[in-house]
Amino acid sequence: MTRDTTEPTGPARTGARLRGARPWAALPFLLALTGYAVVLALWWDRLPDPVATHFSGADGRADGWTSRTGTAVTGAVLLVVAGAVWTAFVRRPALAGAWATAGFLGVLPVQMLRANLEATGGEPAILSPGHLAVGAAVAGLAALAGWAVSRFVVEEGRPGAPAPEGEPDARLPLGAGEVAGWSRYTGSAVLTALGAGLVLAGPVVLAAGWWPVAPLLMAVGAAGLGLARVRVTADRRGLTVAPAVTGRPRIRIPLDEIEGADARDVRAVADFGGWGYRVRAHRTGLVLRSGEALVVRRAGGREFAVTVPDARTAAALLNTLAARHGKV
Q: Where are the domains of the chain?
């Protein structure tokens, strides 16, 4: 007899609420970056070079200029950095602030470019109160949208929350002839947002003329997207972690290397120093979010952790299979 513990689908899987604040903090910055790239592509040939980028005085006349390329790159980098900071540290009550920041930082550069296009007769560009009012209005509307989204968000991995610890080396009861397998998909909103942002920033940087930088940004972004969603499998072969799209490269820990497994609560920054594949003293991990993680103790005392839902079931199954293999 075979027992299948693969991932559930439908309403039981998704629930009625949005999980985690970080993806909803990253979303408005991703939208703002996309809009900025589109505006640059449409207006690029009409923009002066250099572009008026600093304005002062009561009438907001331009008194500082930056190259067209520098202006484009600065606006994109500002959105990416601000989005990364908000995504890394946001909590549900602050989502309105994240959306407001994205709205303002997304609209203000566009209004500045618009002011350059509106300058006629050789007169300096003017960033008027009307231009700033549009940015403030968009920021206010974005803040309302962020507040509305926050009403549906349930945070995961809150500092100080009780750790969902499983019993040490708990086992899943299997009959003598039973074979079991467990599999779950898990992903990182942070890596998805940053990867998509870098990929989208690539064409903007390329259009701005910085062609050596654009391929690098897009390559790093594509790598981040490739690791942003993985499949974690526990079965007779041991533990396997592989990218959901390509299946390669993969991490495999065979049963004969597993001393034991359990579930723990981890914090991406505090425990591993960030997201992605992390290496620390006596432990490594694929950390895609904060929250529940499957931790496998390997021969020699090293540990490997992967953040994944239902880690307790996976740990119990691995302990049972490893015991059959003579290790636990």
A: 21-154, 158-188+229-324
